[in-house]
Design a protein that fits this description.
Layout (H helix, E strand, L loop, with lengths): L1 H17 L17 H22 L6 H7 L1 H14 L5 H24 L7
Helix pairs in contact: 2-3, 2-5, 4-5
Length: about 120
């Protein structure tokens, strides 16, 4: 009977030893890519900001530099979305990239709201 218990214990230990001990593979992507409607609204908001600030820069010299800087905002959105849509991106990557896109869009909206105070129509 003693040998039977030893055999059972060894069999139980063997199963644990066979379990993979290395780092787990990439996690399953359970975070959806940003919805197309949200992407479109964000791109439209940034494009509208660029149009407004650059139109203002024609009459308000202080807005020339903000116009030049604003042109990069719509272009910064697409690479983030492309990486987030990649099958190689982890869940964490997708979350961070979606957050980054939302921060860019937030900046576009906030800067648009500041234009009247800068003397822009």
């Amino acid at each position: 009977m003693k040998w039977l218990w030893i055999l059972v214990l060894c069999a139980g230990c063997k199963k644990q030893a066979d379990a993979p001990g290395g780092p787990p593979g990439p996690p399953a992507r359970d975070v959806p890519v940003m919805p197309a409607s949200e992407v479109k609204r964000g791109q439209d908001a940034c494009k509208a900001y660029v149009d407004k600030v650059c139109a203002c820069a024609r009459t308000v010299p202080a807005m020339v530099e903000p116009c030049a800087l604003a042109r990069a905002l719509p272009d910064a959105i697409q690479p983030e979305l492309d990486v987030a849509a990649s099958p190689d991106s982890t869940r964490r990557d997708v979350l961070q990239l979606n957050d980054s896109v939302r921060k860019i869009v937030k900046e576009c909206i906030e800067e648009t709201a500041k234009l009247p105070a800068a003397g822009c129509p």
